[in-house]
Design brief:
Distance between the termini: 120 Å
Mean pLDDT: 87
Shape: elongated
Order of helices and strands: HEEEEEEEE
Strand content: 15-25%
Number of domains: 1
Structural class: alpha+beta
Helix content: 10-25%
Low-confidence stretches: none
Number of strands: 8
Largest sheet: 4 strands, antiparallel
Length: 221
């Protein structure tokens, strides 16, 4: 039998493959990539949800601002006066003013909360109507034949009296300025007002409402 010389023999080797260590490293790399993608997706969803909440909150704050835009600073009939003992008369809702439709001046809205935990059922629009909850199909959510107010949202209104020369300086409601020289003085109702609307949202798993946005403006005298 002819035999090939040793130099011409072909050496058979095993099929190349992954070792256990290489497989483990590959799994770690893939797992890390998948986790990074999931975290990025979660961050995107959270950011998108917050952007949606911010848009809703800005809308709700703007509705209050639009409603108060045409109202006088104080009651058009009784006004704001200083009674005996330095007590302010005419601040807040007057007798018989119990609904947003009754509120006819800006100071009626001071410390009023529309929505979760407030006196009124839910956030209101610029017409004073409660804003209803809308389902995914675009229909108003009803309960016992009555529209359900926007779930989880609330509008808190704060009205403050501020200095005519420094709108960041809040003054007591009973403050007056005495006459001096050619200056005739300033009565209790002759000060600018600063209105701040803070919009809150309380989700189904939140222990308390969370502030989403705040909007402030000054109503000059």
């Amino acid at each position: 039998m002819n035999r090939l010389p040793p130099g011409n023999r072909t050496t058979r080797r095993g099929r190349p493959g992954f070792t256990l260590l290489e497989t483990a490293l590959a799994m770690i790399i893939v797992t890390t990539g998948v986790l990074a993608i999931m975290e990025a997706q979660g961050a995107f969803i959270r950011s998108n949800r917050w952007s949606s909440h911010e848009a809703t909150a800005t809308y709700l704050a703007s509705e209050i601002r639009e409603r108060l835009r045409t109202l006088p600073r104080h009651d058009p009939v009784t006004g704001l006066t200083l009674g005996g003992g330095g007590v302010v008369v005419g601040l807040g809702p007057e007798a018989g003013e119990v609904t947003p439709d009754d509120f006819d001046d800006i100071d009626d809205y001071n410390t009023v909360l529309f929505g979760v935990g407030g006196t009124f059922d839910g956030p209101i629009d610029s017409f004073g109507d409660v804003i209803p909850e809308i389902d995914p199909n675009g229909a108003v959510v009803m309960s016992a034949g009555v529209p359900v107010s926007l779930v989880g949202w609330s509008q808190y209104v704060l009205v403050e009296k501020v200095s005519p020369t420094d709108f960041s300086n809040v003054r007591p409601w009973n403050e007056v300025t005495a006459p001096s020289g050619s200056f005739p003085g300033r009565t209790v109702d002759q000060y600018p007002l600063r209105v701040t609307v803070t919009v809150f949202y309380q989700g189904p798993y939140d222990a308390a409402p969370q502030a989403v946005t705040s909007m402030s403006w000054v109503v000059p005298y």
